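Archive transcription. Copying these from loose printouts into the bound notebook so they stop getting lost. Printout 1 of 2:
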Amino acid sequence: MNKRTTITFTSDVDVREAAREWAETAGFRLQSDTGKLVFASGGMTMEVRGGASGSETTIEAWIRFGILQRLCAGFFVPAEMGIESGGFVARFARSFFRKRVNKLLVKLGQPEIR
């Protein structure tokens, strides 16, 4: 499994504005807006690079696990993990965050992450 889930696409929608609107309803907070948008919620981070209407956009999403979470899991959990499905490790956390990101992707007319 990849450390980060990466989606690259071109959209006729202003992805940056759509991501800001999505973040308000999805419980994410904007951490940075310096060339790329960085949103965070709990242990999940999502970056949006590009995003102007008609330009290529890259979205990266991943879950960060702290040392205590990793220790409690016997270090079976990596420090970073993508949100795509597959495997048993952090299955529920990945599913929870994947559903939230999929709402943004649907809004942008993109296929959902499986």
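Printout 2 of 2:
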Amino acid sequence: MSNKLILGDGLLGSELVKQTKWDCISRKKDNIDFDDINSYKDYLNDYDEIINCIAYTNTYDSNKEPNWNTNYKAVVNLVDFIKKTNKKLIHYSTDYIYANSKPNVSEDDIPIHCRNWYSYTKLLGESYVELKLDNYLIIRGTHKPTQYKFDEAFINQIGNFDYIDNVVKIHIDLINGDAKGVYNVGTEIKTMYDLAKKTKENVKPVNKKCHRTMPTDVTMNLNKLKEFYDEK
């Protein structure tokens, strides 16, 4: 049996399974409830590394509770369980925690989120991982479905985001390379329009915000990631 277990089979979890064939449990497949660790903790016993891909990702939802329950409280319960074992936790965060920090922000800089419940609770969740565990990997970044699906794309949003199949290859390298700590993960700096054009030639460039808290600059310093590859 694989010693790695993926939690969740959404966009991220499904791509990880596709590229690795690692074991996976999810609400849809196994009827687990991430907000209730008692519904899935027995699945964790046979694995050394737990890869948490579950999050509430309705980014601009003004409702606190679903963000709070899934992105923070459920993560606390998972971390508290893992702390009692020798398991490693791989946890996914977001570049949205950098929205009001400086451009090209590094893992050692202070993250300042973008004033919505999603980014706030994601920051709380990863902070609890750092506080309670010694053996962990936190991945910060953004991934998009490989085929851009909208008719418009922002020219005023810039970052290191990329399509899911590209960034998951980096995730797998980090996980298999036993990387630890916090890593900014992405590719070259680009606008969302630049990314969209790669898979949708007729996409329309727009200069606007879809929500008042939408971050326009989530560029990250990727030197730590580069050093990881240089040392391989």
